[in-house]
Each structure stands twice: as structure tokens, then as C-alpha cells.
Amino acid sequence: MNRKPTPPDGLVIVDKPSGFTSHDVVAKMRGIAKTRRVGHAGTLDPMATGVLVLGVERATKLLGHLALTEKEYLGTVRLGQTTVTDDAEGEITSATDASRITRDAIDTGIAKLTGDIMQVPSKVSAIKINGVRSYKRAREGEEFDIPARPVTVSSFAVYDVRDAVAEDGTPVLDLVVSVVCSSGTYIRALARDLGADLGVGGHLTALRRTRVGPYKLDTAKTLDQLQQELTVMPVAEAATAAFPRWDVDAKRARLLVNGVRLDMPEEYAGAGAVAVFDPEDRFLALVEEHRGKARSLAVFG
User: Fold this and answer.
1) Which fold has domain 71-212?
2) With bands split at pLDDT 50, 70 and 90, how would you rate the model's confidence at 272?
């Protein structure tokens, strides 16, 4: 009797190609891993490339918690043009000569967009407004507002400023930037807001995500590479890399797996998700501290 091969179990760090949606990558991975149980942590726009974290089988339970971690990007912001999508995918809605914008003015504008800020997400985005995706409303020509929300931009740096001429003849400036930010930050909205502040408009022309939490581009594989050899980070290793670790004895391990809320050491107060391991180094659960007790987020043991 031929048994179906057991699907792999863990995280896959993909270097997403341009032109693919995050869902396209998930669909591709379902074929490669031969399982329907695949998900992703944090979407990437079709134009963007770089780190996309996928979970296969049990690791899908980690994804919602991984999506909340810090992210890092390299990108190109074009000053002098606005687009309907705030990136190069959308049609140009205005063009303004940006050649007189100084580096000092750029640095001042970037400083305003660094730290804890309120950001209005791009209208062509997956944000839901009264249960309907924002991009759906935008495509149907609806007039609507998206409320600003708090995000943290830990670092926003300009590596290079290049003079360029757009296809319509407008003198523009292309900024090569790096951004480190919290989950939910839209880099194209940063480009839009920087251009608006400088009075010439702006949009994103290229974006590459280089890190999601502890997972970096140097460990990511292209879809072609994964088709040749599927590289999976075991769930326990993935949890150790991403979350604080709490080692418990055998008795506590049994109680925890049976749903008992254990007293949690003070050092984990406010730490968010914590990975629990037993004496045999088995990954048991993700928990968080709640009123001194361990509240279960996902059980693996």
C-alpha cells in the first residue's frame, strides 16, 4: 500500500519575485509542499520583492504572531510624480518639477516621517473599510477616507539622491532609501507623504523587503530553488529565532499541554508571545503572560 508522503512542517523563507501576489506564492508553495495547509505572514505588494515568510502544516499557527514583528526594506522613492496607487503600478495623476528640492529639505521631510507617526494607508490597499477592501472601493471610483493609524518607523535613511527625467519629460529625483518599521506600515504611503510634504508629490518605484523579524534575505530561497529542493525551517527552530524562550520541567510541560494556566516568571511580563520548551527540547506552545499566568496562544506539543 502506497502511503502519501508526509508534508513538511515548518517555515519557508521565500524571496518573492516581482509580479506575484502573496497569494500566488502560497498557491505555488501548496504545489511544491503537496499540502493545502500553507499560509503567509504579512503580505507583499505584487511589485515588491524579497522576504515572504510562509508556514507549512503546524507552522501556520505561528504566522499571526510572526506578522506582528519588525520589518526592513530597501526601496526607491520618486519625487515629482504622484500615482493613484502611490507606487509604479498605478497611473500617474500629477507631475511637478522636483529638480530644485534640496537634500536638506528631503532630510527634514524624512525626519517628520520617522518615529511614532500616524499614517493613512494607501487607498489601493487591502485595508477593510466597513467590511469592504479599500482597493475594491477605489477601483469602483468610490470617494472615501481611510482613518490614520499609529505605526513606528524606527529608521528612514536616504543612501543616494539621483537626478532623473520621467517619461513625460518631468525632472524628478529618485531617492534610494532604507526603512525599518513596525507591522502595518506602508512604504508607498511614506513615499506619498514625503512627496506631498515637499510640494512635488511622490511615489514608490521599487521595493525589496530584506527582513521580517529575525528572518533575513540571506536565508530566503527563490521559488525555482524551492522547486528543486524544499528548504524548511523546523517549527522549534523558527520559534526559537522569533520569540523569547521559556524552558519548563516535565511536570509543568504536562500541565501546560493539558490546558492548565501556569504561573509565569516575571521576566516575561509584557514580552508578548513566548515559546515554551520541555526538558527534551520539544517546542510545546506559544503563550503570553496575562495577570501572572501563561495564556495559551497556540499548542504544538
Assistant:
1) Pseudouridine synthase (3.30.2350)
2) confident
Burial of 10 (0-12, 13-18, 19+ CB in 10 A): buried
Q: Which of 9, 45, 174, 193 is catalytic?
A: 45
Query: Alpha-carbon distance 291 to 46, whole Å?
Result: 42
Residue predicted with more confidence, 136 or 16: 16
As a whole-number percent, the residues of the chain with pLDDT over 70 amount to 91
DSSP tag of 272: -
Pairing mode, strands 49-56 and 10-16:
antiparallel
| Domain-wise residue ranges, the chain | 10-69+213-237, 71-212, 243-299
Q: For 10-69+213-237, give the CATH class.
A: alpha beta
Residue that has been written with the C-alpha cell 500541565 in this structure: 255
For the entire predicted model, the pTM comes to 0.88
Can 10-69+213-237 and 71-212 be said to share one CATH topology? yes
For residues 293 and 301, which has the higher predicted lDDT (pLDDT)? Answer: 293
Nine cell digits for residue 235: 517549527
Strands (E), the chain: 10-16, 38-41, 49-56, 71-79, 81-83, 92-95, 115-119, 128-129, 132-133, 149-165, 171-181, 202-212, 215-216, 233-234, 245-247, 274-277, 283-290, 293-299
Q: What pLDDT digit, counting tens, does each position of 98-156 carry?
A: 999 999 999 999 999 999 999 998 866 666 656 665 556 556 566 667 889 999 999 99
For 125, the grid coordinates are 490597499
Q: 278 catalytic, yes or no?
A: no
For 262, the grid coordinates are: 501556569
Output the CATH code of domain 243-299.
2.30.130.10
CA distances from 300 to 25, 39, 81 (A): 25, 17, 50
Tell me the sheet residues that pair with 179: 73, 156
CA atoms of 220 and 212, how far apart (whole Å): 11
Q: pLDDT class for 266, splitting at 50, 70, 90?
A: confident
